[in-house]
Amino acid sequence: MLNQLAISDGNNERLQKAASDAIAVQDAVNLIAVVGSLHRHLKAMRETGMSGDEINNHPVTICFASKISSLCRMTADRETKAFGAIEKLANGEAAEYEVIPI
To answer: How far apart are CA 41 and CA 19, in angstroms?
Structure first.
């Protein structure tokens, strides 16, 4: 599969606001607020006609995902353990997980 390039219109007010907020959340510590802001911007991006891979790979999306990853202290090991924990939770079992303070 060939990689494609996309161009995002910096004159679009919705995309300007999304980019501005993606910068602002880099100092955030409230995961709920970060995810809520990302959700609002993903909906707005879809309303501009973007979809699928174009949204998934947009710089705004990547910067928000980076912040979420950072807040969750994401590593490959933590991700693997989380998948094991959700299997337990989905089956009605208790799951232990590590809490790393911000």
So the answer is: 9
Residue 67 and residue 34 in contact, taking contact as beta carbons nearer than 8 Å: yes
In whole angstroms, what is the distance from residue 6 CA to residue 13 CA? 18
Domain regions of the chain by residue span: 13-71, 74-102
Summarize pLDDT for 15-61 with one digit per residue, the tens: 999 999 999 999 999 999 999 999 999 999 999 999 999 999 999 99
The whole-chain average pLDDT of the chain stands at 95
